[in-house]
Amino acid sequence: MSGIQIHTKFFRTFKVNIESECKFFTIEGHCKSQGCAVCQCDDNNIPIPWKKTDLVHTENYHNSNIIEKDTNEDEYFWRVEEFEKDEGTYVDLKTNVEAYTGYQGQKIWKLIYEENCFKGEEKDMCKEERTLNRILSGLHASVSTQLCELYLNDFEQKNKNYVPNWPLYFQKVGDYHERIQNLLFYYTVLLRAINRADKVLRNYDYNTGDFVEDFNVKTIINDILDITTLQCDHPFQEKDFFTSIRGKQAKIYYQNYIHNITRIMDCVECGKCKVFGKMQVYGIGVALKILFSGDSTVQIQNLRRNEIITLVNAFVKCASSVEIIENMFFRKYNFYKSLGLAIFSSVMTFLLFLIFAFYFKD
C-alpha cells in the first residue's frame, strides 16, 4: 500500500456527527488544545451532487417522521452510520490530520474494553468471541501507531512539524507481541472485506462533479483493489463463523457492541480524535456487514457513499500502521546503533588518552 494516497475529494470528505450527546458519562469540558479542533468543510468545498442528495434525504426524512428500516432486518442491525436523520457535517480528513493532540483517551478505551469485549480466558472463548476482541485490540494498536508516527510536541505552533516518536510507540505497541499480531489480524479482516466488495468498488459512481478528481478516484481504487487481490492468498474465512449455537449468539453481541462503540465515540472530548475514531469504527462496522450479513451479496451491492469512504479510509489507515511497524523497529535499531558507536568512540578516545598520558607522563 506504500505510496497510495486517497486524498481525493471523494475520500477526504467525510460526513460525521460530532455534536452527539455522550450517554455514558458527563463531559466536564472539551479539549482546549488547538490540535483537538476540527476544521469543518466550507460549503463551497462540498461536492454539489452530494448537497443535492443530502437535500433529498432530508426532505424524505421529515416527510416520513420515522426512521424506516430496510426490508433486510439483518442489514439494519449492522448499520452504524448516522444517515437516516441526515445528521452531521462534512469534515476534510486531509486538513484534519490524525496526529497526536495530547488528548489521553484511556477512559474511552477502558469503556470499550469493559463494556464491549467478551470476558473470560481466551482458551474458553469461541472463535467468534476471540475474533471481536482481536479486532478491537487491532484497532487500538492501529490508532496508537498513527499517533506515534505523527507526534507533535508543540500543539500551538503554526507550522506543524510532526515527527515519529518511536520510544512512545514501543511503550504503547511495539513491546507487545500480541498487540502487533492483533493489528495484523485486524488488517486481514479489512483486507477480506475490501476484497469481497471488489466488483462494487470498481463500478461505483464516484461522482463529486469534478471529472479529473473522479477519474483519479477510479484509478486509486483500482490500484488498491489490485494490491488487495494479490495479498489475499490466505483470506479471512468468514464462512466458518456463526455456525454453532454459541457462535450464533455471539453474532447478536457483535451487532450490539459495534452500535455501542459508535455511541462511546460521542464521549471523546477531542474533536479531531472523535472524527477519526468514528471513521474507523464505522469502517469496522461496514467490514463486518460485508462479511457477516445474512445476504452479504445484496449488502455489498447496496453500499452507501459514506460506507465506502469509511471502509477504504479505515483500510488504508490500518495498512499504513502495518507498514509503520518495520519503520519503528528500524528507527530503534538505528538509535541504539548510533548510541553504541558513540559510546564505543568515547571509550576508545578515553583509552587513547590514558595510554598517551601513561607513556608521556614524564
TrEMBL record:
Pfam families recorded: ERO1
Topology relative to the membrane: Peripheral membrane protein
Domain of life, per lineage: Eukaryota
Cofactor requirement: FAD
Catalytic machinery residues: C270 (nucleophile), C273
Main location: endoplasmic reticulum
GO molecular function terms listed in the Swiss-Prot or TrEMBL record: FAD binding; protein-disulfide reductase activity; thiol oxidase activity
Disulfide linkage: C31-C36, C270-C273
Gene Ontology CC terms: endoplasmic reticulum membrane
Cellular compartments annotated: Endoplasmic reticulum membrane
Single biological process term from Gene Ontology: protein folding in endoplasmic reticulum
Residues noted as binding FAD in the record, renumbered to the chain: T101, W109, S137, H140, K172
Transmembrane segments: 338-360
InterPro entries referenced in this protein's UniProt entry, alphabetically: Ero1 (IPR007266), ERO1-like_sf (IPR037192)
Keywords: Disulfide bond, Electron transport, Endoplasmic reticulum, FAD, Flavoprotein, Glycoprotein, Membrane, Oxidoreductase, Redox-active center, Signal, Transmembrane, Transmembrane helix, Transport
Family stated for the protein in its record: Belongs to the EROs family.
Subunit-structure text: May function both as a monomer and a homodimer.
Protein's name in the database: Uncharacterized protein
Species of the source: Ichthyophthirius multifiliis (White spot disease agent)
